[in-house]
Amino acid sequence: MSGLVANENMKIYSRKLTWILMLLLVAITIGASISDKINSININTENWRAETTQLIQQYEERLKITELSPMLRTDAENKLKIAKYRLENDVPAPQSNPWSALLTFSGLIEMVMIFAIVIASDMVAGEYTAGTMKLLLIRPHSRTKILFSKYIAVSLFAVLMLVLLVVCEYATNALFYGVGDIHTIDLFLNQQGQIIQQNVLMQVIKMYGLSIFPVIGYVTLAFAISTILRNSTLAVGISLFIMIVGNSMIEATAKMEWLKYLPFANSDISLYIFHLPARPEMTLFFSIFVLLVYIFALSLISWIVFKKRDVSI
To answer: Which among 193, 213, 189 has a CA at the least distance from the CA of 280?
Structure first.
């Protein structure tokens, strides 16, 4: 099995597309960090009370907008609550550091999902298109081992992309703000909506570590579609469409309870870091469980289809 996985890894990293996607992820990450650094030049960190008071006014004005979506309203309310707490308890925001920047740029995890979908969509369908699937099947390996060696390889690639994102984000921001203190503390909201002080690095580990589940979830979806339809283009298109539509469905989950059982409403781990669950009763462990169920179900469907499919040799 390890030999098959190694062979699939070699296929992935021998493609120019793989390296283009990795370089593109690095470029996007560096660009986002530079842009944030430029925008923060005019922020007066010495008079933090004046800056915080200005933020409070901005959040209060935002809450006056009647068309504001429930999630954006909750986000503004959370930030307003924390800003007022800072003033009342004399707790300034921590100095700019790479750990806080990692939380700020957590939205880039979606780029990892997109790039992983592109590679996963071609893992099985690409073999059919190139006519090499029959060559794989005549080897002395079961179809189960062949299929899951591909799945393991593309999953490892997705995890590597996530690690690359973290390393690149940290390295770029470390150049701007220094290596950062691993004991940096900031204010967060817990599940009950109470303001607590937590270690920023631990929140970063929680954010990116648990994001493996939604990333693998979308990899599994693209891999399953690729296996079933045997068409890379359709697999990419359908997976990205589901991802985009799914993100918009997170807002709808607040109104329709049954949507919480779909993977899309559980695919954004940052909602739990910043106390923005789609529904009050939803928890981090609930979302991970839902994602694991769909990962298992899609993997099972892929295996059944691949085992029974007739491939003329």
So the answer is: 193
Distances (CA, A) of 227 to 14, 17, 70, 242: 21, 20, 38, 17
| Domain-wise residue ranges, the chain | 2-40+96-308
Least confident of 128-142, 170-184, 252-266: 128-142
- Output phi, psi for 195, to 5 deg: -80, 125
Helices (DSSP H) in the chain: which residue ranges?
A: 2-13, 16-39, 48-63, 70-89, 98-104, 109-120, 125-130, 133-137, 143-177, 200-210, 212-229, 232-253, 270-273, 284-308
Tally the C-alpha atoms within 13 A of residue 124's C-alpha that lie toward its C-beta. 32
Q: What is the pLDDT of residues 114-170, one digit of tens each?
A: 999 999 988 887 777 767 766 666 677 777 788 888 899 999 999 999 999 999 999
Q: Give the integer Cα–Cα distance in Å for 250 and 111.
A: 18
Measure the CA dihedral 115/119/121/127, to 10°: 170
Amino acid at residue number 101:
A
Q: Tell me 172's DSSP state.
A: H
Cβ atoms of 206 and 273 within 8 Å: the answer is yes
Cα 163 from Cα 88, distance rounded (Å): 38
| 3-class secondary structure, 195 | strand
Specify the higher pLDDT residue, 247 or 3: 3
186 forms bridges with which residues in the sheet? 198
What's the token pair of residue 115?
Answer: 């790039």
- Which pair of tokens denotes residue 6? 């190694």
- Condensed to tens digits (0 to 9), the pLDDT of residues 70-125 reads 777 888 888 888 888 888 888 888 888 888 888 888 888 989 999 999 999 888 87
Answer for the pair 267, 246: CB distance below 8 angstroms, yes or no. Answer: yes
Rounded CA separation 266/278 (Å) = 8
